[in-house]
Amino acid sequence: MSEISELKETMLEAFKEVNQRFNGIDQQFKEVNQRFNGIDQQFKEVNQQFNGIDQQFKEVNQQFNGIDQQFKGIDQQFKEIKEREIITFKYNEKRFDEISKEFAEARMSRMNNSGAIANLSSQVQTYHHEMLALTNRFNRLETKIDNQAT
């Protein structure tokens, strides 16, 4: 009878360890979820920046239209407008490159998080199989005990 009690105690300990592993995995899922929330927030901020840039583009375009109409035919002033457009174009080109880089970094972070989720999913599946094996073993031992008792 003491062997059965020891075996039962061992099985209960094993179940506690598996439960602790599941708790650890739950915590890791929560951390990954927090990372995704952070990425979502970053995307929202980038989107707000795009909205601000669009508004600035509208304002700049309105100003250029007004300048073109006012100084049409005056060569020196046209050159100044042309230089401003070149500066704006270079600024925009540089800004688009920076935004592209930010998107690439966010994409890499998202891929890293996807890998972490896949890894955690694999661990959950492994622990699930271990839990099934322990349950099966426990059931066989209970059956053996019942058979010996009769």
Tell me the overall shape: rod-shaped
User: What fraction of the residues are assigned to beta strands by DSSP?
Assistant: under 5%
Tell me the number of strands.
0
Element order: H for helix, E for strand: HH
Biggest pleated-sheet summary: none
Description:
It contains two helices and no strands. Helix 1 (2-70) packs antiparallel against helix 2. The chain has one domain. It is rod-shaped and about 110 Å long. It has 150 residues and is mainly alpha-helical. It has helices at 2-70, 75-149. The chain is 96% helix and 0% strand.
What keyword list fits this structure?
2 helices, about 150 residues, mainly alpha
Set down the secondary structure blueprint:
Blueprint: H1 2-70, H2 75-149
What's the short version?
The protein has 150 residues and is an all-alpha fold. It has helices at residues 2-70, 75-149.
